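Thread: NDP complex, take 2
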Amino acid sequence: MAMDEKIEPIYDEVVRHNPGEVEFHQAVREVLESLGPVLSKHPEFAERKIIERICEPERQIIFRVPWHDDRGEVQINRGFRVEFNSALGPYKGGLRFHPSVYLGTVKFLGFEQVFKNGLTGMPIGGGKGGADFDPKGRSTNEVMRFCQSFMTELYRHLGEYTDVPAGDTGVGAREIGYLFGQYKRITNRYESGVLTGKGVDWGGALVRTEATGYGTVFFAEEMLRARGDSMDGKSVVVSGSGNVALYAIEQVHQLGGRVIACSDSNGAIHDPQGIDIELLREIKEIERGRVSDYAQRRAGARFRERTVDPNSIWELPCDVALPCATQNEVTGRDAKSLIHGGCQVVAEGANMPTTPEGIRAFLDAGIAFGPGKAANAGGVATSALEMQQNASRDRWTFAYTEERLRGIMRDIHARCETAADEYGSPGNYVVGANVAGFLRVANAMVALGLV
Ligand code: NDP
Ligand code: 2IT
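Output below.
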């Protein structure tokens, strides 16, 4: 999409000022391409340089994380927390532990988080963090020592009214437990609201574990409903097999669809009868195994190695595709394969999994395309519900919380539709999500003055 001529120089400055951070540039470009009509209607945003300010994080923290591995050797990683925008509430967003993490990853995720959190309608600002730590092959004790060292630096920047991290790739309930334990020890406060995604026995909210995957499927269901259709009977492909993917698969099955494939970084499994989610959860959540283990234990399922067949998952014919693994995993070529295979609806469970060429191909083909900031916002929205329960020392039931999540996803879908209509791109959820998220944050920034 072409960028408005008043916005182009702002983008060029972002690129110049943040050299080499290609994922951050990509995330900024996608939002800025949607904002031309917004500036025409709202001259106050240009006068106050809201777009320039929104692209610059409020604070960026980079720190050393030293720890001992099981052999007694010293290991050193780099930790990050980018506190992007607090116009709507405390910084809120996950922590990612993955060897590929660098400042550009954290900034792209933090930038997306600002608009996503705005779109939820809840009182949360945007931030993101993580480390270039690789949890693969590490013992539980090593993971614990790493988390303790990471929090020993990070704790001074956090607080339930300041900055509230949660999980993301490589950070689940186990890591949140160790991080919370260290925060509690250092501060001598049982400050439940400082982290979300906690265990349900010690301050966690029911449904938070399921929320991102379930929410992505609820969003896909809303897109289908807008076309007079439903998930019932649909054939679905899901990439990844982590937290988001597992609960997306579970919810598709609850709504009567059938997930025929999923993956990890080693390869993809194809199970034409439909993935046995009980078996997959046991392998992934209890045994911490791989999807190849699933193929060995399930008759009729086939594993295809990534080195042999890197994009095989998107070549399977399906009605609905849910990319739930990582950024830029769906290329222009993959998008064309999906379209060719009959795919009608794409909802992004992961953050920025589709390349700009892929998005263009989906939109040109008239596919209902739900971008991550809208489709995967159920995770952070349920984190905000966890914060609400922590603040009131209350505990809601699974059914009630799930209903709240369903309502939030319905509202996000409606906000995207309305904004897309109002700003001249009916049916375009990318424009809808960017504009609706931006407006909420930008209006708050205007009200709060030059801070
Ligand atoms: P997990 O660590 O639980 O799982 C990540 C999954 O993606 C794993 O199966 C992993 O495989 C796979 N994966 C990672 N990189 C690749 C790759 N290059 N190719 C194929 N598969 C890959 O993370 P989550 O499920 O929590 O997160 C997945 C995505 O969803 C991320 O983009 C995250 O930012 C986003 N997200 C997460 C939310 C949450 O609440 N957790 C909320 C909103 C978005 P392997 O095990 O081989 O590495
Ligand atoms: O990308 C995301 O929205 C998350 N990883 C969840 C953030 C949160 O604070 O729950």
